[in-house]
Each structure stands twice: as C-alpha cells, then as structure tokens.
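lol ok so funny story. i was supposed to be doing the assay writeup but got distracted and ended up predicting the structure for this chain instead. priorities right. anyway since i did it might as well share w the group, maybe its usefull for someone
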Amino acid sequence: MTKRVLFSAPYLLPVLESFRPVLEAAGLELITAKVVERLSESELLAYAGQVDGVVCGDDPFSRRVLEAFAPRLKVVSKWGTGIDSIDRQAASELGIVVGNTPGAFSHPVGDTVLAFILAFARRLPWIDREMKAGRWEKLPGRALRECTLGVIGVGRCGREVLRRASGFGMRLLGNDIVPIPQEFVREVGVAMLPLASLLEQADFVSLNCDLNPTSRHLIDATAFRRMRPQAVLVNVARGAVVDEPALIEALRAGRLAGAALDVFEQEPLPLDSPLRGFDNVLLAPHNANSSPEAWARVHRNTLRNLFRGLGLSVPSELEIDPTPG
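and the output, tada:
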C-alpha cells in the first residue's frame, strides 16, 4: 500500500528529485512543502492526518501538532542533529518514531566557530572595510595564544571547537551539565568550570549546547554582567540559548566587545532586528553546518530513518555513505 511522506526539510528539498526513484520504488508518495527555514504550526496542521511519515527541518512538532497527525503518522525523520523542536514525550506516547543524525556537523561547526574567533581576534572584516573605504588604518589585533576560550556544551561540536582552539595555543575552559571524559580533558588541556567562573574569565564564549529546559535563555542579563567587557559571544547552537533582548542591551551598553551569531530566536532573522545595526556583530543565516560531504551523509541517514520508521527495508542505495569529512 502506498505511504505518503511530507518533505519539509529545506536542505533536502533541492536534491529530492535525485532520490525520487528509490523512494517511489518503495511505494512512497512524495508531498513537498513550500518552506524557507521552517513551517509554522498552522502550516503543519494543514497536512494533519494525511501522511504516514515526515522528513522535516526545525518545524515545530508540538504535542498539538503530533496529536493532529496521529494515528496515521508513524515517523518524524529530522534532517540534522537538533530535535528540540519535536515534543519527544508526546511522540513516544503516540507511538511515533523520531529519528535524527547525532554529531552530523561537528567538523563544519568547529570550523565556523574558529573562523568567527579569528575574524574578531585579527579584526579581518573591519580591516577589509577600512581598506575598501580608502583608509590605511592598522587596527590592533590579538594572537589567539593570548586569549581564553570558554566553551559551553562540551559535546561533539564543543569538543571539535576545543580541539581546533588547542592547536592555536588558546587557554581553554569548558562547562557542561554532564561529566566530560577525563581522557578528552587531558587531550586538549581544558579546565572544566562552573558557568559563572567561565564567563568571568573567557575572552571568547562559544555556545555549543543543546536547547533544553536547562539551557533556554542560559545567557541572560545576569550572564552578560559576568562577562568581560572585551569578551565576544559566539552562538552556533540554538538562538533561544541566548536572551536576545538582553544581548542587544549588553551590546548597546558596551558591556560586550561583540557577538558572532549563526542562530536566532526567530529565523529568518527579522529585517527590523536591532542585531543588524551593530558594527561589532557578525551574522550568518544558520549556516554553520555547511559541508557538502556532511549534507550528503545526512540526506541518506535521514531517509534511512524514514524507511525504518515506516517498517520498510532500507534500499541499498541509501546504505552507502560518502567518505566522512
């Protein structure tokens, strides 16, 4: 019997046609949604009761949405790693399988964080602007070995950030709510500290934690008051880890040297967001995962999770992964 699948994952949709033959050969009917970054609850509810499976991005699969899709819906296959937008408790109660690809983007995310840190430390974007404006001005920079990096969330991505920073000779601090293996601590020479101590000492603070009840608005007005005036915040985790109004106020008050943000509480970032107006803020469109090899692996793993959640045999074409990056 034909099974209907809704595809709303923005990264997979552009290449979905290349997978159509193998999907249709398995008896799947493909339904594609028009989506920029994610669907809203109301947009999702338009498909309620119509599909057996979903391949999604960061769409909000709340209890309300999942109950509306049940009992027909059998699997929500998330493209990527973070599943904070899916009510896993509700899914479990309704018998809906949730799949994702843990650690899929740790290498490109690690690269992105170091790129942001280097940009601020060496002042490269601002030097470039001065030169193109016809000015020969030598803006002061810092060597990374002179700086302290604090990483909040020492999971797969956080560890890749620390490994890269270790190669630059940075002093390394870490914070996590779960114990970190001592083997890794010794490998990179990171000192694990309470959050307050890390914020007080770090020149760069990198957010690499999951979004959950303990991390929502973890970096708030109190946290910004603890940070050093020369500190730079880097967020490639989830927008809601940062209290955005508190960040804007800290930047306006000069209590922070700058911020590099790849994620936001509302995505796409509204055109009238004050964050767009700060010269000391670097912005990116939730793009830290950018990597052709990583994307190709996630495409296949997401579809494998879909097949398994629907109780179908995984086609051989989806069992072959590209060489990891």
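Residues 220 and 299 are 35 Å apart (CA to CA). The chain has a mean pLDDT of 96.
back to the writeup now i swear
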